Amino acid sequence: MGRKWNNIKEKKASQDAKTSSVYAKFGVEIYVTAKKGEPDPEANRALKVVLERAKTYNVPKAIIDRALEKARGNGEESFVELRYEGFGPSGAMLIVDALTNNVNRTASTVRSAFGKNGGNMGVNGSVSYMFEPTAVIGLVGKTSDEVMELLIEAEVDVRDVLEEDDAVIVYAEPDQFHAVQEVFKQTGIHDFTVAELTMLAQNYITLLEDDQTQFAKLIDALEELEDVQQVYHNVDSE
C-alpha cells in the first residue's frame, strides 16, 4: 500500500514545480464542477472535493474565487470530460483524464504525447479495469492507532490506515471522502497533506532504468498538456 502514497506524493512534487499550469487547471476544474451543480461547496459535494484538493496544492484564493464567480455569472464556456487509456514502456498502464473545449485538439495532443514517448493509446476499458477509485487522505500530528480509533468511534469504514513518511495516510472508498475528513475536522485538524479522489492500480510494476527514464518523459509530456487534468499509472515510484 505504501507505494501508492509514494506515487501520489511524487505527482504532487512534480506538479508543485509547475505551479502556474497547475493553478490554471484547477481554475478550469473548479469552474466546470461548479457549473455542473451549485457554486457552493456545501451544496455541491463534488465541488467540495475539488476545493479540498486545491488546498493541498496551495492554489491561491484569488484563482478559486475567480472560477466560482465565473460559474455564478453563468459563464458560457463549455467543457467536455474525457478519459483516455494507454500503455507506456514495458506495458506500463496509464489513465489520462482531461477537461476540454476542443475534443479534436485534446485527442490529437494526447495521442501525440503517447506516440513520441514510447507509448500507445488503448481502447476504452483496456486499462481502467486494473485500477480502483480511491479516496486518499493524509494528515500529520496523530499516529495510525489514534486515527483508526477516531474512525472506529465515528463508525466510518476505511480500507487501510498506514504511517508513511511522517504522515498518516487513510485509504477509503470514494463515497467516504467527506466522512473521513469530517472525523478529523471534529478534532481540530483542517489541513491535510493529501486529499485526493484518485485511481490506484491494483498491482504495481517496477521499470528498468532506461524504461523508467522514457516513462518519466511520457508522464511529463502528458501532464504538460493544457487539457489534461490527471494522469494515473501503475509504475512504482520507488
Automatic annotation (TrEMBL):
Locations listed in the record: Cytoplasm
Entry-linked InterPro entries: Integrase-like_N, TACO1_YebC-like_2nd/3rd_dom, TACO1_YebC_N, Transcrip_reg_TACO1-like, Transcrip_reg_TACO1-like_dom3, Transcrip_reg_TACO1_YeeN, YebC-like
Highest taxon of the lineage: Bacteria
Keywords per UniProt: Cytoplasm, DNA-binding, Transcription, Transcription regulation
Major localization class: cytoplasm
Domain TACO1/YebC-like second and third: from-to ranges: 80-235
Gene Ontology molecular functions: DNA binding
GO terms for cellular component: cytosol
Stretches assigned to the TACO1/YebC-like N-terminal domain: 3-73
The UniProt record lists the keyword Transcription regulation: yes
Biological processes annotated in GO: regulation of DNA-templated transcription
Family to which this protein belongs: Belongs to the TACO1 family. YeeN subfamily.
Protein name, per record: Probable transcriptional regulatory protein GJB61_19030
Organism placement in taxonomy: Bacteria, Bacillati, Bacillota, Bacilli, Bacillales
